[in-house]
Amino acid sequence: MVVMSSGSGGTRPGVGRPKKTALIVAQQIVEDISRRGNTVGDRLPPEHLMLEEYGVGRGTLRESLRYLELQGVIMLKPGPGGGPIVQQPDGGTLAATLSLLLQFENAPFSTIMEARAALEPSIARLATTRIDDAGLERLAENLRVAREQIGDQAVFSAQSERFHELIAWGSGNALFGYLFDALTGLIAGASMGITYPRRQRELTCDIHDEIYAAIADRDADAASRLMSVHIHEHTTYLEKRFHAALAQPIRWELDG
């Protein structure tokens, strides 16, 4: 059965169809990882025990494990003593999925800046009430490294994006954290040719300092306002100097 989408009036293929057995087993494996309290590096039970536990054939189980490997949940280690080993999924998988979806929409890179302008002021506001001392220390260290490495374009750019990721995680909302990991991955994975002259880097450091101070002072209004100004000024710079790059369609990028 195909269910009509209430939003666009189109169809959503696959809704209402029974899930493949391999996907159901994959979900059960993840539930069991959580139930057992497995952590990164733990080995899952050997194949013959998993076949008995989940009551499926070898082909179905291996399809489930390959799917989980693609999602970053496990690593399949070959050879004796190998097998499925628990991993920590990260924003890379989400970035790949988002880039694939956005490519099919022919969405430009300006889409990312629009999303950031809408979200980041609210995220900064949340961070003022939820970030802990360790999070503030990570932000302060980020600012220090960015200032020290301001002459290195690549290092500075990485630290600048990291500042925004740290605030997203400091908001106490894991969805924002993973989303900004993914957005950073989308930008980093593209050859957009965007550069920042020394003066632009200095201005970025200055407003990052101000945003940090507002968050550390637990001043929600100031943090939100400064973040809004920062994203607006950054977008204006990109539109003036790198309009063609912002207009580029997002393309699916895969690591490796």
From TrEMBL:
Matching Pfam families: FCD, GntR
* Keyword Iron belongs to the record: no
InterPro entries linked? GntR_C (IPR011711), TF_FadR/GntR_C (IPR008920), Tscrpt_reg_HTH_GntR (IPR000524), WH-like_DNA-bd_sf (IPR036388), WH_DNA-bd_sf (IPR036390)
| GO molecular function terms attached to this record | DNA binding; DNA-binding transcription factor activity
Q: Which UniProt key words apply to this protein?
A: DNA-binding, Transcription, Transcription regulation
Limits of the HTH gntR-type domain: 19-89
Stored Gene3D superfamilies: GntR ligand-binding domain-like, Winged helix-like DNA-binding domain superfamily/Winged helix DNA-binding domain
The superkingdom listed in its UniProt entry is Bacteria
Protein name (database record): GntR family transcriptional regulator
Provide the species name.
Dietzia psychralcaliphila
Origin organism lineage: Bacteria, Bacillati, Actinomycetota, Actinomycetes, Mycobacteriales
